[in-house]
Write a structure and sequence with these properties.
Elements lengths: L2 H6 L2 E11 L2 E11 L15 H14 L5 E7 L2 E7 L1 H7 L1 H6 L7 E2 L2 E6 L4 H13 L1 E2 L6 H13 L5 H7 L12 H9 L6 H13 L1 H5 L9 H9 L7 H14 L15 H11 L13 H6 L1 H7 L2 H12 L19 H4 L14 E4 L2 E4 L33
Parallel strand pairs: 3-6
Antiparallel strand pairs: 1-2, 2-7, 3-4, 5-6, 8-9
Helix pairs in contact: 2-5, 5-6, 8-9
């Protein structure tokens, strides 16, 4: 057998690895021609043309020649169709191997129609390039797009999310500022293996929560996400600002237009609708952090939408701050604030660590790990929380 025939009959062997260079993120790093005969001891030949092979596959992807699959990505006005090849898709992804099988595939005029409305067209194009060439160019992707890419690669079972997380600088958190609203919606639905990334993003959002709450888009945030945020103890924002936002959010969900500054025009139906919208969220507000003057500005509204027991507890607290509330909804007194806020905003008294002062079974409990001498002492006024006696505990290990 001559060498030309041997080359023609040779087989390609692809070895998967991971290489990251200026060109991008490569998953193929070695392609060799293996000869089906034993070469002479004096001559050993190995021909590599990795770049040429990738170019040919990229041409096949971009041209769509001889395609048998139509992928429709996106939804509403943001929809795009891609032409692909079932042989390559099923070879590169176990997800596609199942989705494009005879039992699952939907065909029209001999072409398989595959719809993925939850994957953005831009992300789908990146995924198809990876499928055909093994390349993902992370250097030219925004953080928001990388987040969407992570979700898509995990859903399509490409098993490269850990490598993307490793090479992309998520720790800088700068990508969150691109679109905090969208980042919040994405990371809220993340689960394993993205738990650590989710925690990083959510903590960063909470650290800058005042800026995020003031974004106009936040009035359209989903209720489960808003409820989750209100349940967190690390929101760096004054409670009355959260309450103002919550009232705005509630009004934005109502079908008719109402004005919080003119509640005299509200109907009974308006109050009932507002109460229904906010009934899960209002008890999550740390009402005892709201200055009494601000509360009384909207007292009539709160009386109509708050649970009666909670409303009575708040009024009693303003009249006599020494009284321990009885309502089960009033167990949480204060939202915890990080050290930098406690010592610099000049609106708080002594600080006992970064946990809540809570009321359980009529016993006042204070948890903490530090105190701040630079914080101003309590002022004897109706706006302050009185502590007549307390114990200080040192916690060596925080779980």
């Amino acid at each position: 057998m001559d060498n030309s025939n041997a080359i023609a009959q040779s087989t390609m062997c692809m070895h998967l690895g991971a290489v990251h260079d200026d060109a991008g993120f490569l998953l193929y790093n070695d392609i060799k021609l293996i000869y089906p005969f034993k070469p002479s001891r004096k001559k050993k030949m190995s021909i590599r043309y990795f770049e040429e092979l990738l170019k040919d596959f990229e041409k096949l992807r971009s041209s769509g020649d001889n395609y048998d699959v139509i992928i429709e990505a996106g939804e509403n006005v943001n929809i795009k169709q891609f032409h692909a090849h079932s042989l390559i898709l099923t070879l590169r992804s176990t997800y596609f191997k199942t989705a494009l099988s005879n039992g699952w595939a939907h065909k029209v005029n001999g072409k398989i129609i595959f719809k993925k409305p939850n994957i953005n067209p831009d992300v789908m194009e990146i995924l198809l390039k990876y499928i055909y060439t093994g390349i993902i160019d992370l250097d030219n992707l925004s953080g928001l797009k990388v987040l969407n890419l992570l979700i898509a690669t995990d859903e399509l079972d490409f098993r490269i999310s850990d490598r993307i997380i490793k090479y992309y600088d998520f720790e800088s958190k700068s990508f969150i500022k691109e679109d905090p609203y969208e980042v919040l919606h994405i990371v809220f639905h993340l689960n394993d293996p993205f738990t650590s990334l989710k925690d990083v993003c959510l903590h960063s959002i909470c650290e800058n929560s005042e800026m995020f709450f003031k974004l106009p888009k936040f009035l359209t945030v989903d209720k489960p996400i808003l409820k989750y945020l209100l349940q967190r103890d690390d929101l760096v924002i004054k409670e009355y600002i959260i309450l103002d936002f919550l009232l705005e959010w509630g009004m934005a969900q109502m079908s008719n237009t109402v004005n919080i500054n003119n509640i005299s025009n509200w109907t009974t139906n308006d109050y009932n609708k507002m109460r229904e919208i906010l009934q899960e969220l209002l008890p999550l507000i740390r009402w005892f952090q709201i200055p009494s003057a601000l509360f009384h500005n909207n007292r009539q509204l709160y009386k109509m939408i708050l649970p009666e027991a909670l409303f009575d507890d708040i009024i009693n607290f303003y009249n006599n701050p020494r009284i321990i509330p009885n309502s089960s909804n009033s167990g949480i007194i204060a939202r915890c604030l990080p050290k930098k806020s406690d010592s610099t905003n000049n609106s708080y008294g002594p600080v006992f660590g970064n946990r809540d002062l809570a009321i359980k079974n009529n016993v006042i409990i204070s948890e903490g790990f530090n105190s701040y001498p630079e914080a101003k002492p309590f002022v004897n006024s109706q706006q302050e929380l009185f502590i007549e006696d307390y114990e200080v505990f040192k916690v060596d290990n925080l779980m």
